[in-house]
Design goal:
- This protein is 72% helix and 3% strand.
- The chain is mostly helical.
- The N and C termini lie far apart (135 Å).
Length: 130
């Protein structure tokens, strides 16, 4: 068996192969671009669908009785916190008023106020006596 050497290509055949190669490269680049666009579109559609499902799920969960109960409890907590803050402010104001009254009357109270007795006259309440 003898090996035969390849035949040289004619210039027309070479041009044809080069042209086909360029066409194939162009088609390949076009297909790659189209694939990237389709992939991007598919991802966008998936994201839109996922967002829609998430919104639907959140809406369904939000109307669940347990969630409604939790919302009610959270509203109660906020209301109680505001009431507590108001009571704290009142307590500070009352303490300030009491301290001021002590300074004005020269009294030094300790402990509770149960030991103080007020005398009532025709004019109204008199100063406390200990």
């Amino acid at each position: 068996l003898g090996a035969t050497s390849p035949q040289p290509l004619s210039p027309d055949r070479t041009r044809s192969i080069v042209s086909s190669n360029a066409d194939l490269r162009f088609k390949l680049l076009s297909l790659e671009k189209e694939l990237a666009e389709k992939t991007s579109e598919a991802l966008q559609m998936r994201n839109v669908q996922q967002q829609g499902l998430e919104a639907q799920l959140v809406q369904e969960l939000a109307s669940h009785p347990t969630v409604e109960y939790i919302k009610t409890l959270e509203a109660d907590i906020k209301r109680y916190q505001h009431a507590l803050q108001a009571e704290r402010r009142k307590a500070v104001e009352m303490k300030t008023a009491l301290d001021s009254y002590k300074r004005q009357t020269g009294m030094h109270w300790t402990g509770s106020l149960h030991h103080i007795k007020r005398t009532v006259s025709a004019k109204g309440v008199q100063s406390p006596r200990m």
